[in-house]
């Protein structure tokens, strides 16, 4: 009997204590882990979305900057072909358009540092895309001049350029830009809408 008691005692003290790591998680702990994991996943997802939106918005600003710069340039198609137009009314409209584009371009260029945009390092894809738009516009006017259709073609092709700028500006506004950008774009769109109407009236009057 004494031998049995000693055996039980030795068996008890030799048994390994239960490791804390082997214990199962409580329901409260499991719930906490699930919620924490969901929050981390949400934060990562939002960071990716915000990064994409920021990149897309920056690309829109870069496109608008290049578009305004190309079209308002002294050697751009608007300036180059305006003096070749036969209609004085059309030349006046073209001059007003170029003035509006120049003012908007100067205003936007002054705000590029606020937008963290370096005009000397705009992404190649954006530069190539804008160059293609400019080249096609210039080629259209050149062909029209050679065929004696410059005035009529200037109205249609330039109206298209105005519509493209308005569409690009509208897309920027949909991304909720800062107020200082919204002010510039709102004024640009007001000016372009008025000039677009002038081109439409000229076209209707000459047809």
Number of domains: 1
Q: What characterizes the major β-sheet?
A: none
As a whole number of angstroms, the C-alpha radius of gyration is 34 Å
Secondary structure: number of strands: 0
- How confident overall, as mean pLDDT? 83
Helix content: over 70%
Q: What is the CATH C level class, in words?
A: Mainly Alpha
Unreliable residue stretches: 43-53
Describe the structure.
- With 207 residues, the protein is mainly α.
- Helices cover 79% and strands 0% of the residues.
- The N and C termini lie far apart (124 Å).
Give the key terms.
mainly alpha, elongated, Ferritin, 207 residues
Quick recap:
By secondary structure, this protein is mainly α.
Helix/strand layout:
Blueprint: H1 2-14, H2 27-72, H3 77-82, H4 88-111, H5 124-146, H6 150-173, H7 179-206
Helix pairs in contact: 2-4, 2-5, 2-6, 4-7, 5-6, 6-7
